[in-house]
Amino acid sequence: MAEPDLRLDPLEDLSLPGWVYHDADFFEAEKAAFLRKAPQVVCHVSEIQQPGEWRKLDYLGESVIVIRGDDRTVRAFHNVCRHRGSRLVDDEGGCDRVLTCPYHGWSYGRDGALRGVPHREQYPGLVSEDWALKPVAVEEWQGFYFVTLEPGAPSVAETMAPYEAEIAPYRFAEMAPIGRVTLRPRRLNWKTIADNYSDGLHIPVGHPGLTRLFGKDYRIEAGEHVDRMEGDLRDTPSANPSERAYQQFLPDAAHLPDSHKRKWLYFKLFPNVAFDIYPDQVDFMQFLPVSATETVIREISYALPDDRREMKVARYLNWRINRQVNAEDTMLVERVQAGMESGAYEPGPLGTSEVCLRSFARRLRRELPQARGAAPPA
């Protein structure tokens, strides 16, 4: 299908049809078109500093290990034994001298090479070099490691190039985790979550706390591969105790320019990775698709070393505030998902300010022209 002329596209002012948020065949088409190509964040450099330290990511039915070798090189491998396909590791992370399969005991070095084969005499023609763990493409960006199941998408460095100067002062690579990876299963299509993340019009309606903190000063913009959102903290004390205390105790972040010392900044990388960037901490969030109506939200926070009492209080208050925001979003997106699954829903109009939703719908229709249809193709 030829790409439509957007100047004449009758769908330009309409949201996506509801069926693409729950149709199983469309989900399979998304995986083939772009989900498997999209870089996925696994961990931070601080979590795999020593040889043998590894972290795991499960994505689209695949399981990937990112591990630092004895030569200090970071590599990524499929979490699959080459003998009988057993998963090698189950935890989110660890540190091992070798990766040993729990099924038959085949073992692999930190470089992925096959090191040990019990009952080796039973495999007379086996050449160890032919049976190393299968590699996965890995990229380091600002101290974060990303993996890609298939080639075809731009690198994270290319995607985030327009924002490098703004992000540099935060010193991502010098951060360390201040929490643990949390996995939150949700009965939602991944796009329902992604849409909500970049939706600016729901802030004053669905998030009274953010409205108290930002007032009407919440801005969104859509790039080719990245949505950028921001809000500046108001000086007017909030009526909410946690928000008011955060406003009061948030200390000066000397490493940031004045324009960002009280700014909450958000980036969503197409299709399903986001970074929440605060003066006091940073977290990544992924919307990991499981099926057409199931998604796991994966997230963890990081911060620069800072022993100031005010900073510790600010980070705790940030967590309290955003815990409430997450609860509000959960309720909102569950209502949207239910509506998308109703036969009564038809694509609704998009406002002129809904630039991120417009950009996302345009991108999806370009990637998968079937999304232009009011109903699934036969």
Automatic annotation (TrEMBL):
Keyword Chloroplast: no
Any GO molecular function: dioxygenase activity
PROSITE patterns assigned to the protein according to its UniProt record, in alphabetical order: RIESKE
CDD domains: RHO_alpha_C (cd00680), Rieske_RO_Alpha_N (cd03469)
Keyword field contains Oxidoreductase: yes
A Pfam match: Rieske
Domain Rieske: 40-147
InterPro entries: Rieske_2Fe-2S, Ring_hydroxy_dOase_asu_C_dom, Rng_hydr_dOase-A
UniProt signal peptide: none
UniProt keyword list: Dioxygenase, Oxidoreductase
Cofactor: Fe cation
PANTHER family assigned to the protein according to its UniProt record, in alphabetical order: CHOLINE MONOOXYGENASE, CHLOROPLASTIC
Protein name: Aromatic ring-hydroxylating dioxygenase subunit alpha
Lineage: Bacteria, Pseudomonadati, Pseudomonadota, Alphaproteobacteria, Sphingomonadales
